[in-house]
């Protein structure tokens, strides 16, 4: 069993238990089938980025919190920090994600390093209301889908967009495309999003 799949299963089960949610309630909240959630919990599935975003949104946690092997908010933003906190996670669609700076409620953002394999094109689900992504390409040519069109983006350029609607990423190059993804989440009503009522 792949280590990432095993850790995701443990994390999903812990989030469910902290909320007191059944698999049925989790499926409804996350818009992911009960069967798929069960497979993820047992470490039998390599979920896609879209599935992981749906789960994160359903629980009201950031992407890095979902992939973390520690409790949300366990880091102290008020101290010197050096990332990444863990090696790259290769997700079900070949996309690699490395958390450089984990989400911290007091700051409201997380910083990810994303690597898109050659030929990769994927569409993300809308994030929570008010979420903003800032894309900073490091290597290769890529395009972003937002406002019903593809927008080309090269290294040394940057793009900021509202991530609370459908958007997508495409590798337009013949090599792996690498970019930083700085995601801002609107401040939540409580410091620990697991305690917030849905």
TrEMBL record:
Domain of life, source organism: Bacteria
Keywords per UniProt: DNA-binding, Transcription, Transcription regulation
A Pfam family: HTH_3
InterPro entries linked: Cro/C1-type_HTH (IPR001387), Lambda_DNA-bd_dom_sf (IPR010982), RmlC-like_jellyroll (IPR014710), RmlC_Cupin_sf (IPR011051), TransReg_Diox_bact_type (IPR050807)
Domain HTH cro/C1-type: 12-66
Gene3D superfamilies: Jelly Rolls, lambda repressor-like DNA-binding domains
Protein name in the entry: Helix-turn-helix domain-containing protein
Protein source organism: Pseudaeromonas sharmana
